[in-house]
Design goal:
single chain, alpha+beta, five-stranded antiparallel sheet, two-stranded antiparallel ribbon, 9 strands
């Protein structure tokens, strides 16, 4: 992974024994299954690699473990890289999907929760799974 990569959160769980520390360090937490863009990757003195995200900004804090102020970073293992490498490619991918859609001709029915559009009766909806790449 590198800055600009689109990722999806695969684990937003907080261990019970770390919940208080997390609440103290992070004003904003991540959400499982949500897409993010990597803003920066931090080595954290070799302790654990962390990522900063374009969509999430937290206030810098002093961390005794690494002996410096920095924005709290999310552990890189909480994310999986999406198959498109950059935000620009993701936008191009989204634009192509939007162009394929056609206006509804019959009575509209509510689409499944995971889709953001409506479908019509007698119209087939095709869902495409985007495979993850694990580097």
């Amino acid at each position: 992974m590198r800055p600009g990569d689109k990722v999806i959160c695969i684990n937003d769980k907080i261990d019970a024994e770390k919940a208080e520390e997390i609440r103290r360090d992070f004003e904003i937490w991540i959400t499982k299954d949500k897409e993010y863009t990597i803003r920066e990757i931090l080595d954290n003195s070799g302790i654990v690699t962390g990522v900063l995200l374009e969509e999430v900004h937290n206030f810098p804090k002093f961390f005794n473990l690494i002996n410096r102020y920095q924005e709290p970073a999310f552990a890189i293992w909480r994310f999986r890289k999406l198959n498109y490498a950059t935000a620009q490619q993701a936008e191009e991918h989204t634009e192509k999907l939007v162009e394929v859609g056609r206006p509804a001709k019959e009575e509209e029915v509510q689409s499944p929760k995971f889709l953001d559009n409506k479908v019509t009766k007698n119209e087939t909806t095709i869902c495409v799974a985007i495979p993850f790449t694990d580097y």
